[in-house]
């Protein structure tokens, strides 16, 4: 019912636009009627109908074509202020004007329909390609940890095979590791769904960024065991008003991405700092910023593909198998949900540098203790 009302309102406005456009052009042409030939005015009205055909639906355009023909006959073809035409040439001109206006309107409308159909077809093809890419990625990323879990459980349940305690602990560890990997992929899918639906509403509260970084790195220690992590965090880093859960996921995805796509032994550097810029537009205000960088000394990103790093389901041509291509796009979505920005660039001495910048309120930890 609501859509029908909106459609009627839109249709009424299009008819009004068509009517007013012909009226305005006719009144302007009427001022210079004695100075120019009426055939030129006919061309102007024909151009008007062509423009209306580009922006309006077919019926309002047909109305414009009819009104233009009537205006040309009534106001500009002698005798004025009558629909009577004295000579055959003028009658033929008026008929041809109306026919050309109608043909132009119909052809333009058909062209717009074809463009719309092509756009729908391309969108469907793109959606299917994205869907197939997602299925290919998920079929591997979800099947592998599930297979590991089922295999380990099956071995633990076999009564005819005696397993040492060390073997049992190893199988339990494999189950835990596979479960965490499975949970990571499911979390990414759920988070992408939340981003797509626009339901993410950040719950801003005072957060200790240093605590978030250390907690995340402890949680991901197994994935980063073959890498070195270096922390460069300001000792007097204040509390920032951010969403704790979103920040955890942002740091987790960035560090996990570095650990999965860099060689063993690479150094991952996590830096957090507080900065203040003067707001020259307001003269007195200060812009308080929380800046977090996650960098590594690996091989960096391909220069011709780096702009696509945050695209959904995009995986680099030379990247190793595995991964859904969701981690970085989720990072970008969560950063922007908190009115922040993220940039990616290759370091001068190889490696990649992710820079997160948040313009947020801050409070010194000492102030919190005093309260």
Automatic annotation (TrEMBL):
It is an enzyme of class 2 (transferase). PANTHER family: SENSOR PROTEIN KDPD. Keywords: ATP-binding, Kinase, Membrane, Nucleotide-binding, Phosphoprotein, Transferase, Transmembrane, Transmembrane helix, Two-component regulatory system. It is a multi-pass membrane protein. Residues 137-362 form the Histidine kinase domain. The chain crosses the membrane at residues 12-32, 61-80, 92-111. Coiled coil: none annotated. SUPFAM superfamilies: ATPase domain of HSP90 chaperone/DNA topoisomerase II/histidine kinase (SSF55874), Homodimeric domain of signal transducing histidine kinase (SSF47384). CDD domains: HATPase, HisKA. It is found in: Membrane. GO terms for cellular component: plasma membrane. This is histidine kinase. SMART domains: HATPase_c (SM00387), HisKA (SM00388). Its EC number is 2.7.13.3. It catalyses: ATP + protein L-histidine = ADP + protein N-phospho-L-histidine. One of its GO terms (molecular function) is ATP binding.
């Amino acid at each position: 019912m609501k859509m029908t009302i909106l459609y009627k309102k839109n249709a009424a406005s299009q008819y009004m636009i068509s009517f007013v456009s012909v009226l305005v052009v006719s009144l302007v042409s009427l001022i210079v009627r004695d100075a120019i030939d009426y055939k030129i005015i006919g061309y102007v009205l024909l151009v008007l109908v062509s423009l209306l055909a580009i922006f309006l639906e077919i019926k309002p355009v047909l109305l414009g074509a009819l009104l233009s023909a009537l205006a040309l006959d009534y106001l500009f073809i002698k005798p004025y202020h009558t629909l009577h035409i004295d000579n055959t040439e003028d009658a033929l001109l008026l008929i041809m004007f109306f026919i050309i206006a109608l043909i132009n309107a119909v052809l333009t409308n058909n062209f717009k329909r074809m463009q719309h159909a092509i756009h729908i077809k391309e969108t469907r093809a793109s959606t299917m390609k994205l869907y197939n890419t997602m299925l290919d990625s998920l079929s591997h990323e979800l099947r592998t940890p599930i297979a590991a879990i089922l295999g380990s459980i099956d071995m633990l349940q076999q009564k005819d095979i005696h397993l040492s305690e060390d073997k049992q602990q190893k199988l339990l560890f494999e189950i835990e590791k596979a479960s965490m990997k499975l949970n990571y992929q499911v979390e990414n899918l759920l988070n992408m769904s939340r981003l797509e639906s626009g339901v993410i509403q950040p719950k801003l509260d005072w957060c200790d960024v240093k605590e978030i970084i250390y907690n995340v790195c402890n949680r991901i220690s197994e994935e980063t065991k073959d890498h070195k992590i270096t922390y460069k965090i300001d000792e007097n880093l204040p509390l920032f008003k951010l969403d704790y859960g979103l920040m955890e996921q942002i740091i987790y995805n960035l560090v996990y991405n570095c650990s999965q796509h860099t060689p063993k032994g690479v150094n991952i550097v996590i830096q957090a700092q507080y900065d203040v810029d003067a707001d020259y537009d307001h003269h007195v205000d200060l812009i308080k910023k929380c800046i977090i960088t996650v960098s590594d000394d690996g091989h960096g990103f391909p220069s011709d593909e780096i702009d696509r790093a945050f695209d959904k389901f995009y995986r680099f041509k030379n990247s190793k198998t595995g991964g859904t291509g969701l981690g970085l796009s989720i990072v970008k979505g969560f950063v922007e949900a908190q009115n922040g920005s993220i940039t990616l660039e290759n370091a001068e001495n190889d490696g990649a540098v992710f820079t997160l910048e948040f313009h947020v309120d801050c409070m010194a930890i000492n102030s919190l203790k005093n309260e």
